[in-house]
Amino acid sequence: MTKNLSRREFLSAVGTAGIAAALAPAGARAAKKRPPNIVFLFIDDMGWRDVGFMGSRYYETPNIDKLAGGSMVFTNAYSNAPNCAPARACLLSGWYGPRHGVYTVGTSSRGQSRLRKLIPIQNTEVLDPAIVTIAEAIKPVGYVSASIGKWHLGDDPQAGPKAQGFDVNVAGFRAGSPPKGYFVPYKNPELPDGPPGEYLTDRLTDEALKFVEANKDRPFFLYLPHYAVHVPLQAKAELIAKYKNKPGSNGQSNPTYAAMIESTDQGVGRIMARLDELNLTENTIVFFFSDNGGVKGITSNEPLRGGKGMLYEGGIREPMLVRWPGVVKPGTTCDTPIIGVDFYPTILEMTGAQRPAGKLLDGESIVPLLKGARALKRKTLFWHFPAYLEGKAEGARDPHFRTRPGGAVRAGDWKLIEYFEDGALELYNLKDDIGEQKNLAEALPDKTAELHKLMLTWRKALNAPVPTELNPEYSP
Ligand SMILES: [Ca+2]
């Protein structure tokens, strides 16, 4: 069709902006291509099997499932921690916990003192604003960024999203859950109340749409850390009613939780629809991920063992997908283990941003996996949790704590967990035993020693503090 136009008609048709691109050599034209938008959907406390595409038969997530159908789904995607704040600190900084000191939520001395054998390592509750986050790192290549939702790593202006490179902060401050719940009044210092009856998950979606529309003509990074589906369990009555009439399945049967998931799913659908309307879908990369496993007693992560707060798979393995039109083959699956700190280098590579000068990165870009590679260079993943998390929960090692101070490593199909109080080691083969039921540490001493050595070497390299001081109040 173009060849039938006169040069003047052609120039008029492509407009001024198009002329330079049309007349430039191919290489320059490629370089001028607008970098992709990044939408990072980050759900709170959503378990590995809490979405349809991961096998839930109770929760209904048609929009997320549709997204999965156009994506690469990662079946071995891990959070860096079994709870909220450290997962976020690692994701945003690209660093493992020992580098920023955010190991847990609140105090590391949770539970009854008489039941804690060790004085745990002191926790850091604020992500140091001097740390260069991914939002800061992609700014030089022209990105405008928003954090819309839960931050949990400090307050603006000192240490909130705006202090960490986000141009827009909606609803993000130190809190790890909505202070007054999911309906107005929110009592959120970073979110003016909407009309009576407004539901927080819907509102955050509205705010995300506003940001996308306002920035449709330039590259944007939308970090959307929903408060959902964290407690308090509160949802819209009509959705709760729907699930009350639906039989549970595979240990999943809480109607309010299901309704919270459906509201989240509706939000994903609205965002994808708006990207389509604005003709942005083809140049937008979408991530979907959760910060830790589902909460035992509310949902089921089966066949994984345990849930939020544990170093077992149920606490750290997450639903994850990446939709990247033109690069990722839709409907594909990747079982290579990846972890929260990988997103920073991944987004650097996707956006064409440089690694900030002098910035160490603990993860590895997963772009090769997205392009079809089967493995990364990195062969081991680590967790370091020198803190106590109280709570009786099915799957935990003892009745008082979801986690006592410990660490874990995954290498290939093998996973080793170490508990610092007594040096106990648990070795599991995840290929044969995804439910971590059969501790092979005694049966396979060589494999156990091999993984333990990896863990010790890693701890030494990162100066990871291990608690050794005895608690004088210990009296089990
Ligand atoms: Ca969480």
Description:
This protein is an alpha/beta fold and 476 residues long. 28% of the residues lie in helices and 16% in strands. The chain is built from 13 helices and 15 strands. The strands form 3 sheets. Strands 1, 2, 3, 4, 5, 6, 7, 8 and 9 form a 9-stranded mixed sheet that branches. It has a 4-stranded antiparallel sheet with strand order 10-13-14-15, covered by helices on one side. Helix 3 packs across helix 9, helix 7 runs parallel beside helix 9 and helix 8 crosses helix 9. The longest helix has 23 residues. It starts with 6 loop residues before the first helix and ends in a 14-residue tail after the last helix. The structure holds calcium ion (CA). Calcium ion (CA) binds next to loops. The site of calcium ion has 7 residues, from loops.
Ligands bound, unique: calcium ion
Q: Please identify the structural class as seen in this structure.
A: alpha/beta
Q: What Rg, in angstroms, do the CA atoms define?
A: 23 Å
% residues in beta strands: 15-25%
List low-pLDDT spans.
1-30
DSSP strand tally: 15
How would a crystallographer describe the biggest sheet?
9 strands, mixed
Topology at a glance:
Elements: H1 7-23, H2 26-32, E1 37-43, H3 62-69, E2 72-78, H4 84-93, H5 97-100, H6 134-138, E3 144-148, E4 168-170, H7 200-214, E5 220-225, H8 237-244, H9 255-277, E6 284-290, H10 313-316, E7 317-323, E8 332-334, E9 338-339, H11 343-351, H12 367-370, E10 380-385, E11 389-390, E12 401-403, E13 406-411, E14 414-419, E15 425-429, H13 445-462
Parallel strand pairs: 1-5, 1-6, 2-8, 2-9, 3-4, 3-5
Antiparallel strand pairs: 2-7, 6-7, 10-13, 11-12, 13-14, 14-15
Helix pairs in contact: 3-9, 7-9, 8-9
The structure holds calcium ion.
